[in-house]
Write a structure and sequence with these properties.
Number of helices: 10
Number of strands: 4
Low-confidence stretches: 158-166, 246-250, 278-308
Largest sheet: 4 strands, mixed
Distance between the termini: 47 Å
Shape: elongated
Helix content: 55-70%
Strand order of the largest sheet: 1-2-4-3
Strand content: 5-15%
Oligomer: single chain
């Protein structure tokens, strides 16, 4: 229904700018974009991030983890990618479970424990299982097209000459309201899908608190460490497990605190005991963390090398 609402909004904007002919053209363009996205979404997203594919030889522990989680989820083995980026994040893409791919940044793999990485990748496989990867890519494509069409309308006055009223005010309202409405629909779809993937990820991994702990760790870091891909292509932000550089009001994701609370309820339903991870940082804590992440900050010595999901031998 929400995808249909986006398509209808696209057509309505086309009608306002070009009458019935504009609506038909808008519909054809939307259909063409959806078909193109259906077949090429994974290639576009992975190329955008310069992701490199790994296998059982190049990243045995990480690849084996994804393989085991896929088997538990009853899914075909997806292609596995690593992104050389400090910002901790992960995403899934692909038009269906048979053509899916999952990716994680080196920042995420080096920051989290093995159980936390497993929780994150189970979340991404939850997106695959729920077929969110196709839905979210189509949503991003149509929403981006609405914004592009609205920008086009600002420079070229449109109207409906068939009914005898070329109304500049209506056109201006359309080009202002349509992108905002598209953003609202996009956020509604994204937020629901994140809760669904958290639920599926908790069931696949069997450890909802590990996912909650991962979310608590990476949410603050993802806001502090620059993400060049999201800065160049803001629509990519909805792909990640946590949002980047946005306020909660305009975020495509639910608040991390709410997601952790929901995971805590799932853990209790599973009969797991324990306390939820801390999720909030004060302004002073954020400033301290930002200073520690500064390029000029000296490296912090570690008492012993920590094994990561990317390299089981603890190498940098």
């Amino acid at each position: 229904m929400l995808l249909s609402a986006l398509t209808a909004l696209f057509m309505a904007l086309g009608y306002t700018l070009g009458g019935s002919g504009g609506a038909v053209i808008a519909l054809l363009v939307a259909a063409g974009m959806n078909l193109f996205t259906f077949w090429n979404a994974d290639k576009i997203v992975l190329s955008m991030h310069n992701a490199r594919e790994v296998d059982a030889q190049s990243a045995p522990e990480f690849y084996g983890m994804v393989q085991a989680l896929s088997q538990r989820a009853g899914l075909p083995m997806p292609r596995v990618y690593v992104i050389d980026q400090d910002a901790p994040n992960a995403f899934a893409t692909g038009r269906n479970p048979e053509n899916a791919a999952v990716a994680a940044t080196t920042g995420l793999l080096n920051m989290l424990t093995r159980d936390e990485v497993a929780g994150v990748m189970a979340h991404e496989l939850g997106h695959v299982k729920n077929r969110d990867t196709l839905i979210m890519t189509m949503v991003a494509t149509i929403a981006g097209a609405i914004s592009m069409l609205a920008n086009f309308g600002l420079f070229f006055r449109g109207g409906n000459e068939e009914n005898g009223h070329s109304n500049m005010i209506a056109t201006l309202l359309a080009v202002i309201v349509a992108p905002f409405a598209a953003m609202i629909v996009q956020m509604a779809i994204s937020r629901t899908r994140e809760y669904g993937a958290d639920q599926a990820g908790a069931e696949i991994s069997g450890n909802p608190r590990a996912l909650a702990s991962a979310l608590a760790k990476i949410s603050g870091r993802a806001e502090l460490i620059p993400n060049p891909v999201a800065e160049r292509n803001p629509a990519a932000a909805q792909l990640y497990i946590v949002p980047v550089h946005v306020s909660e009001l305009f975020s495509t994701h639910p608040a991390t605190e709410k997601r952790i609370a929901a995971l805590e309820e799932i853990a209790q339903d599973m009969g797991q005991s324990g306390s939820p991870p801390p999720v909030s940082m004060s302004g002073q804590e954020r400033a301290t963390q930002a200073s520690a992440l500064s390029p000029v900050a000296p490296p912090v010595a570690s008492p012993k090398p920590r094994r990561s999901a990317l390299d089981p031998h603890g190498r940098d």
